[in-house]
Amino acid sequence: MDDPFIGAFAAFELLSSAILVVDGERRIRYANAAAEDLFEVSVRQLMSLHVCDLFRDGEQLRMSLEEAKSQVFADKRQILEIDRLGREPTQVSATVVTLHGQPWPALIELQEIEQQLKVEREERLLEQAQANRELLRNLAHEVKNPLGGLRGAAQLLEAELGDPALTEYTQVIIQEADRLQTLVDRLLVPHRAPRIVGDVNIHEVCERVRALVLAEYPSGLTIVRDYDAAIPEFRGDKSQLIQVVLNIVRNAAEALAPRIAAGDAEITLRTRVVRQVTLAKQRFRLALELHVLDNGPGVPPELLDRIFHPLVSGRAGGSGLGLTLAQTFVQQHEGIIECDSKPGATDFRILLPLP
């Protein structure tokens, strides 16, 4: 790593893709941190290898590198397989890029197929969430003004009516207008409430939520702590994060109603640190991973892909805004929420970048 040219590649350390730069003899001259993670060996070890030796089908890559050396193409994509000790062969998408006017003829960008699909899925989720927020904000503003006029007209009409039997109808109008106003206010919460940023200890957030939910369900429900005490504090809005975790845990508790009645309902709050995570196309060296797991019936399969969409609820009488609000608050912290669910095991996974 003492090569004088290595400084030219410093920006590659921020990428989620594995980057290898090779010389004319196909020896690795540079590897970024993501390459260390992909091959599960140190940069120093990688620098002692011929790049083709890393792949099961190295001959295919060797031919591409020879073509790059002759500047036959600008870039070329192919699917390769890598072997890692004790692991199944892993398919990666490899792009060989010709480097013109450089001491090294080629750069190779590698990304696991599964990871690539995950990144694409997260990008779609973020785009959909942004579109949903814009739609809801516009809809809420369009509904808000007519509601005020409707309520005011009902109050004026009620003042003119002498028959109590008729004022019963105006009261229905006023109460329904108030209910819709409350719904509109909830739609606008993420856009109205100012963020109060400070140092956040995620375990204080979890403990606050745990206390609140156990106060609502004093018997039949166990909330298990599985904390990593080494997780550092980070900058964020503590009240927003409490709301995020509370919405998810309350949803879990409501889904666990039959098991609470039976006395064997369980929710687990698990915290871990994960490394080299990509969130919203940005690479983070460390991230907080918070799991909210429950042993309930699971999210209905037809709802699993839509549970973060506004006004989608699997519960009778639910507003369908709790998870939408949670996702919005987490995205404001540059994070994301994912859900994996099957009968007997639901896992909401919150990822937040750490300093």
TrEMBL record:
Pfam families the record matches:
HATPase_c (PF02518), HisKA (PF00512), PAS_4 (PF08448)
- Source organism, top-level taxon: Bacteria
What EC number(s) are associated with this protein in UniProt?
Answer: 2.7.13.3
Q: Entry's CDD domains?
A: HisKA (cd00082), PAS (cd00130)
Q: Which keywords fit this entry according to its UniProt record? A: ATP-binding, Coiled coil, Kinase, Nitrogen fixation, Nucleotide-binding, Phosphoprotein, Transferase, Two-component regulatory system
Gene Ontology terms, MF aspect: ATP binding; phosphorelay sensor kinase activity
Task of the protein: Member of the two-component regulatory system NtrB/NtrC, which controls expression of the nitrogen-regulated (ntr) genes in response to nitrogen limitation. Under conditions of nitrogen limitation, NtrB autophosphorylates and transfers the phosphoryl group to NtrC. In the presence of nitrogen, acts as a phosphatase that dephosphorylates and inactivates NtrC.
Annotated protein name in UniProt: Sensory histidine kinase/phosphatase NtrB
> Gene name, please?
glnL
